What we know:
The structure is a homodimer. By secondary structure, chain A is mainly alpha-helical. Helix content of chain A is 75%, strand content 0%. Chain A contains 13 helices and no strands. In chain A, helix 4 crosses helix 5 (60-66), helix 6 packs across helix 7 and helix 12 (188-202) packs antiparallel against helix 13. The relative contact order of chain A is 0.06. At the A-B interface, helix 6, helix 7, helix 8, helix 9 and helix 10 of A face helix 6, helix 7, helix 8, helix 9 and helix 10 of B. Chain A binds a DNA duplex through residues 1-3, 13-14, 16, 24-26, 29, 48-50, 58-62, 64-65, 68-70.
Amino acid sequence: MITEHAAARGRAGRMTAMTTGNPSRADVNRRRILDVALAELLRDPDASMDQIARAAGVVRRTVYGHFPSREALVGTLTDEAVAAVAAAHAAGREGVVDPAESVARSTLAVWEIADRYRLLVALAQRSVTMQGIRERLTPVREASTEILRRGLEQGVFASPLPPYALAYVHEQTLFALMEAVNDGLLEAREAGSSAAFTMLTAAGVPASRATELVAKLSD
Amino acid sequence: MITEHAAARGRAGRMTAMTTGNPSRADVNRRRILDVALAELLRDPDASMDQIARAAGVVRRTVYGHFPSREALVGTLTDEAVAAVAAAHAAGREGVVDPAESVARSTLAVWEIADRYRLLVALAQRSVTMQGIRERLTPVREASTEILRRGLEQGVFASPLPPYALAYVHEQTLFALMEAVNDGLLEAREAGSSAAFTMLTAAGVPASRATELVAKLSD
DNA sequence: CTTCATTTGCACAGCACTGTGCAATCTCGT
DNA sequence: ACGAGATTGCACAGTGCTGTGCAAATGAAG
């Protein structure tokens, strides 16, 4: 029984697999389970071990042979995804001195490995609860979109993004800043104007204009 | 038995409560349950009905007297939160013609009701899975922070936000754009440069410079 | 003090999982 | 065809919930 997921941790599977490069049956299965799990969790982040096992053409018990727990499986997966993202991010910024170029390069690099990164997004945004929230926020998002659409049309905003995608960005930006407050990185009182500023610049409004506007409004 | 949560839907509680303005005992309890549940779910988005009930100084069975299911309770709460957000957002933009001012005003307005809005954030970002992801992404976020710190220092970036908060924003922005791709609003291929552009402007880089830089890099 | 709405306290059924143990079976490489 | 390693198929224990039914206690309003 594969030494009951010993392979999962230290890769101490079997002579053949260690010395020769060709992977053992267990190695292949383990890989297949991970790959299928990725796809399956992308569809449904709450997929059970049974769903994953069946999708991988294997029995639930076998999955437990490779991973001691569901958490371990998902953990391995996110570890791989994060590692890929981290590598891309690092590669993007290596040897670059200009911070702006670093940001741009690393973003582009991360975007390249979207497949892996997408797992993280799916896991993050697709919980049952999250679905409900985003659905309920739709009217607000649509009102936002309309404003953004007008602003882009008039040239007040500058962005290659379609208005609706920009509305997504705005929504998530607010979430990010609220979370920053929750984590004590930001003082709630003063952060309001910072939030407004960020929303404006994210839409492509020049920083100077944003500063001026926010100052005017929060007197 | 309060007609078993009839009050939850159509408010058909009782003569006294309907005619006179003073709320019945049930009404008071219902309100208290909602308020406590808000606080409790803020601490732990996965709080069970029992935890909520106890915190409200009431027995689990009583909560079921007011809300037919956990989902209904959470739903009522998010409905209230979203309604508050929507109202603030609408109030912020009413009668404003300039889109930039609309965005700024509505952001500030929404920020005012942070308490309610925070529930949505907590529910959205605090799932067990999400915790794991954010934790694992920490090294990447820190590398990002360092770049942002340098950029802010040099004046390449302009933002009132501390670097770490800006890193939160960047992280969430990428999530937003990936989700936009997942939802078919954006073409994955071309979106890379849009993403880079958005990350730059969010950091306060002028749109013109962002355009130029991204164009140079994605040739 | 009566009455009616509400709340309480259990008990119970059910569900959808997660992890494990073990014997039987399969499948390679040799 | 052998044998070690891997997989399968059950069965089972355990967990931590959710949602319900019902009789008894409580409390406020008249």
